[in-house]
Amino acid sequence: MGAELVFCVRLLDKTFGAQGYSNIALDRALRDSDLNPQQKSRVSALYYGVIERLPELDYVLSRYSKKPPEKLDPTVRNLLRCGVYQLAHMRIPDNAAVNECVNACKKLRYTSASGFVNAVLRGFVRDGKQIPVPKDPALRRQVQYCAPDWLIKQLSSEYGESVMDALLTDALGRPPVTLRRNPLAGDASAFLRAMGEISVEKHPLLPDCYRVQGGDVTRTDAFAQGMFHVQDLASQLCCLALDPQLGDTVLDLCAAPGGKSFTLAELMEDRGQLYAFDLHTNRVKLIAQGAQRLHLQCVHARTGDASLHNPELPQADRVLCDVPCSGLGVIRRKPEIKYKDPAAFTGLPPVQAKILENAAHYVKPGGYLVYSTCTLSRAENDGVVDGFLQQHPEFEGVSFLETLGEPFGNWKVTLHPGCLGSDGFFMAKLKRAR
Ligand SMILES: C[S@@+](CC[C@H](N)C(=O)[O-])C[C@H]1O[C@@H](n2cnc3c(N)ncnc32)[C@H](O)[C@@H]1O
């Protein structure tokens, strides 16, 4: 574990020093490394574990280190976080875990801190590795849920204690990997054969939706042959909510990396036109590459700003507005979102409203518009669509996917891990009456 530990500490140093997403930083670092698959999987477990449990780990450090965690050197702090995480949550013998951290100190050129690291970790081991319980009730919840106070309060007040509990508890473990099978690239048995050793299980709710137990799905023949793409259940349901028909003209205005565009095109059996836009040209390439791998001809990937009217675009039968958002529904995949400054989210609703307002121009009379986010924030969800409907009497909310039962059967649906096991997600379906 020595090499993995040093690798992980360096990656955590980079992650906390930058604004990027953990999954992208990890993928890139692992791709460029010479670690073997077992080492990669141990690095992933430790890296995500530390980010997910940061408040808990820092609380432990605050009790065992004379210096408060925020005053420690960032590299030493990350090494100690890894050490406490390994001791409390990984099956590594105590002595081995402590010794590795002491040795890693030297490899990271922090030899002078090795005695201190040893003392902090040995102190935690001596006390039976029990996570201390803070007396202060607010701090106790922060340590229990590994989340900041503002997030616990916002989720509880907007969605209730049980949704807050489900979302934050679920975010303390690795999320499921869900696939959308491409029915245009062969039948289900060919897909299962081409998945090889990877064990896949059909999702009880949706045809063409599969859960994966583990393993790198991108190394399978099925991936190479364009038989699936990775897509969470919530995101698949959002495409079914838009319900594109064969031959439709569909606009997907915030489309990268393209997961929803691909499912929409597959639902259309690749017949019709699907224009998939994104603001960032480098991300548009991901849509084009994905569509090519999945053999989808009807997807046209373009750079475009969804908040600005483009008079060259056709009137569409269906428009998807999967807007940029705070991402509070996907903290189990991107745990660093929990620690963002909430002030950074206050500018989102006006941007989302502007994109929705512009999207409405493209919808044909009788056509449909789906507004969606992967967040649980009332201001970004209900606030934006309710505000839009007040200004647009030509649109009305229409219910969707009623046959799936609760929580469907309304024109606005909020999903969270506690209901269907999906990511947290919001979708609203609107029809242009005239
Ligand atoms: C939630 S993600 C979309 C995920 C995508 N629909 C999928 O299923 O793969 C939001 C996307 O909106 C893009 N974006 C942000 N502002 C935009 C704008 N003004 N116009 C178009 N795209 C924008 C981001 O680059 C990001 O790729």
TrEMBL record:
Active site residues per record: 374
Source organism superkingdom: Bacteria
Catalytic activity, EC: 2.1.1.176
EC class: transferase
KW Cytoplasm (keyword) present: yes
The UniProt record lists the keyword Aminoacyl-tRNA synthetase: no
Key words of the record: Cytoplasm, Methyltransferase, RNA-binding, rRNA processing, S-adenosyl-L-methionine, Transferase
GO cellular component, one term: cytoplasm
PANTHER family with a match to the protein in the record: NOP2 YEAST -RELATED NOL1/NOP2/FMU SUN DOMAIN-CONTAINING, RIBOSOMAL RNA SMALL SUBUNIT METHYLTRANSFERASE B-RELATED
NCBIfam families in alphabetical order: PRK14902.1 (NF011494), rsmB (TIGR00563)
Entry protein name: 16S rRNA (cytosine(967)-C(5))-methyltransferase
Organism: Ruminococcus champanellensis (strain DSM 18848 / JCM 17042 / KCTC 15320 / 18P13)
Top-level taxonomy: Bacteria, Bacillati, Bacillota, Clostridia, Eubacteriales
